[in-house]
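Hi there, hope your week has been kind to you so far. It would help a lot if you went through both lines with me. No rush at all, and the record is pasted right below:

***
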Amino acid sequence: MKEKKKTNVMVLFLKEISAFYRFFLKTSKTEKTIIFYAEHEGYYPNFEGLINKLIDEHKQTLCYVTSSPYDPILKTLEPKIKTFYLNRFLPFFMMFVNCKVFVMTMPDLHQFHLKRSINPVHYIYVFHCLFSTHMIYRYGAFDHYDSILCVGAHQVKEIRKHEELNQLPPKRIVEAGYYRLERIYKAYLEHIPKKSPSTTEGIVLIAPSWGDANILESCGEHLINILLKAQYEVIVRPHPETVRRSPALISMLSSKFGNHPHFTLERTVISDDSLLQADILISDCSGITFEYAFGTEQPVLFIDVPLKIKNQRFQELGIEPLEIALREEIGVIVSPKNLEEIPQIASDLMARKTFYKKRLVELRKKNVYAFGKSAEIGAQYIIDLLKEKNQ
C-alpha cells in the first residue's frame, strides 16, 4: 500500500512538472489571455456558462487550471480549452503567471500562500455561493481582486460598505447573477416530467457545510437512522472538505448504511442529480440551501447547529447576512434536540410545496440579479475588459 501511494505521488508530481512546462514554454501568449482556476472539480459548474459563452460566441481560447487530478475537465476534447493540473506548484505558478484576465472562485487571494502575480494581471472573482460576503468568508477575503461578479444586491451593498469603512479603493462590480443557480433550475425543469413516484415517504437530501459543527459531524448518524426508520429515502452529500478532512466519518457512514436499499452516499459534488431528485433538503449553513431553494423552488429544513462564522468582525458592517435573514423565509429551522420530529416536519413541508414555490420565486427575483442571463453578462464583461487592456 505504501509503495502504491508513493507511486501515485510521483505520478502526480510528474504531471505537475509537465503542466508547468507546457504552460510556460509550450502555450502561446494568445492562448493564455484568459485563465480560469478551480480548487477542485466541483467548481466547474460555476464557470461553465462563462466558458461556453467565451469559446462559442466570442471564439476565445482559454486556459483552465485545476488542483484536482481527477477533474473531468482534464479530459476535455474541446480544442479551445487548454487544461493544466497544478497543486504543489500552484504558488509558483500564481507568482509568475502572465495573462490579461485571471478568473477564480477562491477567496483570500494574496492573504495566504497564493499571491497576486508580479505581472499586471486583472483578477476577477466569481462567487460559488449566493450568501453574503462578510460572515462565512474571512475578513478581507475579496480585497485583492480587481473585479467581482456579484450575484445580488446584498453583496454589492456589503462590499461597498467594507470598502468605505476600510478606506479601500472601489473594485469594479458587475451585477452578473449566478450561473450555477440557473444551471440547477434548467436541469430541474427538464427533470420534473421524468421523475418517478417515490416508493418511500419521499427523498431527503442531507447536504451540510463542513467543519466541526456541521450536521454530519454532530448528529448525522442519528439523523440518518431516524429518516430511514420513517421510510424516507436518504441521500447524503458531504461537502468536499468533509470528504477530504474527515475520511473516518465518511467510512463509518458507508459501513453502517451502505447496504441499506434506501441509502445513498455521494462522495463528489460534480453532479447536481441529487438536488433534482430530492423532495426536501436538510442542511445547516451550507450555500447549497439557497441553490436548492431557488433552483428547485422547494423548501429547506435547517438544523440549527452553530453558524459558520469565519469573520468575527462581520457585525461591523451593520448588515444582517442574507443567509440569516432568509432562513425562515425559505424553510423551517429545527433544533438538534428535536431530531425525532424531523420526519413529520419534512412531511409537512412537502405538503406545502405550492405555498413555498410562490414565495421562493419572489425571493429569487428580489435577491438574484439577471436570472437566466448571467453567463452572457459575465462573458461580455471579460471581452470588454480585454478590449480595454488591448487599448
Observations:
- Residues 254 and 265 are 7 Å apart (CA to CA).
- The chain has a mean pLDDT of 94.
- The radius of gyration is 22 Å.
